[in-house]
Amino acid sequence: MKSAILVGLLMSASLLPNVYAASTDATFINATAEMETITITYRSPFDYALHQYTVELLNQFRMEIDSSISYQARRSSQAMYEAFSAAHIAENDFSEMALLAKANNTAPK
């Protein structure tokens, strides 16, 4: 029992300098950190208007490209569907078979 208490005291004593050093390092870093600076560049009204126009033009162009991509994807999907449907119907002419079944009254009920 005495040895467990002694080991606990020695371990806590050995950790104490590390905790103290960590706290002093943090205060030292905070004290020596440089202040953040912000650089402001003043522009003429024409430069600002040109910048705004350019940003708006690029945003409009980006939106047009997005809508164009969606439209083209929709069109190509529709074209693939129509091509597949046409090929499938030409391969298996179900409409003619349905007419023959009606005429002969051999359709399953």
Would you give an account of this structure?
The mean pLDDT is 76. This protein has 109 residues and is mostly helical. The chain is built from 3 helices and no strands. The protein has helices spanning 2-32, 45-91, 94-104.
What's the arrangement of secondary structure elements?
Blueprint: H1 2-32, H2 45-91, H3 94-104
Please supply descriptive tags for the structure shown above:
109 residues, 3 helices, mainly alpha
Helix count, DSSP H or I runs of 4 or more residues? 3
Shape, principal axes of CA atoms: flat
Name the quaternary structure: single chain
Radius of gyration over C-alpha positions, nearest whole angstrom? 40 Å
Write the element-wise H/E pattern from the N-terminal end onward: HHH
- The average pLDDT is 76
What is the percent of helical residues?
over 70%
For the secondary structure, the number of strands is: 0
Main sheet characteristics: none
Question: What is the distance, rounded to the nearest whole angstrom, between the alpha carbons of the first and last residues?
Answer: 93 Å
Low-pLDDT runs = none
Category by helix and strand content = mainly alpha
Work out the strand percent. Answer: under 5%
